[in-house]
Design goal:
By secondary structure, the protein is α/β, with parallel strands linked by helices. The chain has a single domain, classed as Rossmann fold, CATH 3.40.50. The protein is about 55% helix and about 10% strand. The chain starts with 6 loop residues before the first strand and ends with a helix.
């Protein structure tokens, strides 16, 4: 696909997780030239309420590329996933961006089947740490958990092993 790997299309959960885990979404701006948010994801974030954790950080990230048209989803995506995940995959395919940021396992599986490369909120933290940014993975995970972000024990073990 022609677009550089410095572009990413992201779903709601990683945006909220990174916002509460790090205090902002600047980590995405440091790692990627383009961070694309489908209209459906934007709507999902605002549907949870302005006072919900992570929403103000999302609204302050004016550099995010927010799509203003709904994704024309295939019936397979529309019937297999929630609107946000389906729109992330469809937008990535339409824009020929090979990288998506999705945390939910079913969405990740469908993205792989669609030929896309994946990362998630923990993958973004690890990438930032590996590139020399001052990111505390244990503190970010603790903040995510304090705000009700569910992470599997396997993902947490892997992330903490990368911190060492």
């Amino acid at each position: 696909m022609p677009d550089s790997p410095r572009s990413i299309v992201t779903n709601r959960t990683p945006l909220i997780a990174l916002a509460v885990g790090t205090g902002s979404l600047d980590i995405l701006r440091m790692l990627y030239d383009r961070v694309i948010v489908p209209l459906e994801v934007d709507e999902e974030i605002h549907a949870i309420g302005a006072d919900a954790p992570g929403v103000s950080a999302f609204d302050c990230a004016t550099w995010l590329e927010r799509l203003d048209e709904p994704a024309a989803m295939t019936p397979y995506l529309r019937n297999s996933l929630d609107r946000g995940e389906a729109s992330v995959i469809q937008s990535a395919l339409d824009l020929e961006i090979p990288l998506v940021c999705i945390d939910e396992s079913v969405g990740r599986r469908v993205a792989r089947l669609s030929g896309l490369t994946l990362t998630g909120s923990i993958g973004v933290l690890i990438k930032a740490r590996n590139q020399g940014y001052a990111v505390s993975i244990p503190q970010s995970i603790a903040r995510m958990r304090e705000h009700g972000i569910w992470l599997s024990a396997e993902v947490v073990r892997y992330a903490l092993a990368q911190q060492a």
